[in-house]
């Protein structure tokens, strides 16, 4: 007889979406998870003309790596009538760019220092094709901090969609979730891939300084991994404070 074992892992303490690829995102209190993840996540991107693809700050090359210092938020929620809502961008100097403005591309080009434009993300121009949700636990951040106490292991460095508070637990517990099902709010997720880290975790953003030790720590302590990717197998609403439960199949012989 096949049965299931349900284990409480923690609760959601952070929900984020990133309307523009490689830019800082916006925090949410609640989200309606769909098969494509959080609505509005990575809808837009800044074109890298040399590759004819969306620029990736993760590759660490100027001028594109500076995009991580910009912040983006959607002006309206995505809908069937408007699947690509406009976005508002805040620059490091405090200035702003509105995607609905006629001079948006000229201003983006001036700020980045290279001729470029804001484009919609699609299957042909995207730089990443991973699963739509990235999960990270407080247990992993604590383990990194123990390994490198002077490092600032803020969630923002790792750009998760969901941050799970696991209480006093410390360690890379999500690494054991590969192949497992997660129950979260009204939704169900399937974890299927580790999240390998890159130079993006070291770049300065907001109050976080440039720190190569962040990536060095993830490499030494956990094979350059931090967090996992998941697919949404059952859409549903999630909220800050929702419990995350791990569902594992357990095989037991009939009595």
So what's the CATH class? Answer: Mainly Beta
Q: What fraction, in percent, of the residue positions are helical?
A: 10-25%
Give Rg in angstroms: 19 Å
Q: Could you say which overall geometry the principal axes of the C-alpha atoms support?
A: globular
Number of helices: 3
Low-pLDDT stretches are 251-255
Explain what the structure shows.
The chain is mostly beta strands. 11% of the residues lie in helices and 35% in strands. A hairpin with a 5-residue loop joins strand 7 and strand 8. The strands form four sheets. The chain has a seven-stranded mixed β-barrel with strand order 1-11-10-14-13-12-16. A three-stranded antiparallel β-sheet has the order 5-4-9. The protein is built from three helices and 16 strands. The model is unreliable at 251-255 (pLDDT under 50). It has a single domain (2-251), classed as PK beta-barrel domain-like (M1 Pyruvate Kinase, Domain 3). It holds the Pfam family MOSC. Residues 78-101 are annotated as: Disordered. This is Molybdenum cofactor sulfurase.
Structural descriptors:
mainly beta, M1 Pyruvate Kinase, Domain 3, 3-stranded antiparallel sheet, 16 strands, MoCF_Sase_C, Pyrv_Knase-like_insert_dom_sf, molybdenum ion binding, pyridoxal phosphate binding, MOCOS_middle
